[in-house]
Amino acid sequence: MNQELLRNFISEYEKEFAKISGEESYKWRAVKQFQDNWKTDADNFVEMLTLSLSKTENLMDSGYYYPRKMIIAIAEKESRSVRRIFIDLFDEGVVLLERIELFQKEIKGLNDRLFPGKNHYQDDRAVLVYLTLRYPEIYYFYKFGMYKVFCEKMEDDFKPTMGRKSNTIEFLKMCEEVKREIRSNNKLLTLHKERITESEYFDTGSNILTQDFIYAVTKYLHLQTDMENTRPDWRWEEGGVDEQEEHIELRYGNANQTSYEDWTPIARLAPPKDHVFIVEWLVQQESTEHADMLADARRSLDINLVEERVLEPWDYALYQCNTSSNMYSMIHWSYFPNGHEGKRHASKVIQLSAEEAVKLLGDAGKPGKYIEQG
Length: 374
Fold this sequence. Notes:
Elements: H1 3-15, H2 17-24, H3 26-37, H4 45-52, H5 57-60, H6 67-77, H7 79-89, H8 96-114, H9 124-134, H10 144-153, H11 166-182, H12 186-195, H13 207-219, H14 226-230, E1 235-238, E2 247-252, E3 264-269, E4 276-281, H15 291-307, H16 313-321, H17 325-328, E5 331-336, E6 348-352, H18 354-361, E7 368-372
Parallel strand pairs: 1-4
Antiparallel strand pairs: 2-3, 2-5, 3-4, 6-7
Helix pairs in contact: 3-4, 4-6, 6-7, 7-8, 10-13, 11-13
């Protein structure tokens, strides 16, 4: 990690502290609510769970991401099982990765039986929220996208890869390193202490403050660095792509009206070599019938591989495959890590009935189509 960059960003964070605090203070309220109400042995576990998570909207229910609603829905049908699963998750005597994997495995088992075909949303991000709410002086709120962008801005040697279990461990290690620098800034610590109200949890160890800084770097703060001026130029060019190997496929279609199988395959994209992506077109480029979709596909390639100017465009492309914007667009990206015969990774549209909307969204008036990460 570039320590000079880190210190420069902390200085910027200090300058913008009041503004950022107004946007992000919900995190301290969410932890206070959980700390005040979590009782593993509560007579009514579902009621206690619901109350404890009642201020986690931005952390656990936003956009098309519903871990809070799903964990409550599962608990309503299997409260004893979910109580036991949380007890195991919060057992600090067991290795962290083992606890995370066990929690996700057991919740998936319940979800597959109770709500077959539905996403339980209990990913690493959600599990780290539970752990941070329970132990705010040990853990940190986590998002893969946030972690990835922060590493790039800090010129960190570790390159987070989507789906890699070690991401969470490396993230926690990085947070500890960042926290040491945060806690050496007495003015920042004073600003933080003075802004905490009775309705907010004061993290004496500065863990929430550290994550808040990391998130601020990715969303609110910007430094002009030499790194940006020396970033290599990425480009794409036409060539052959082996569909039996790792690749991304681009298809054209309206996700609100049709499904993946009905969309037109436009191109395949191979991982880059020497800052060059190879793109194989799957439709005739001279055809006037395909002119609009080809223009949209070229624009999508330019935006995601060249114009975003991230350090690792391939990782960003994999991230793009699982975003809601991937479904809103007419150009849909799908990742095939093991070739075309293997599993496809991409966001998708799901249809919710009124009953399912109650379970997932708490509102029978919101049936319809929603985006689910793949």
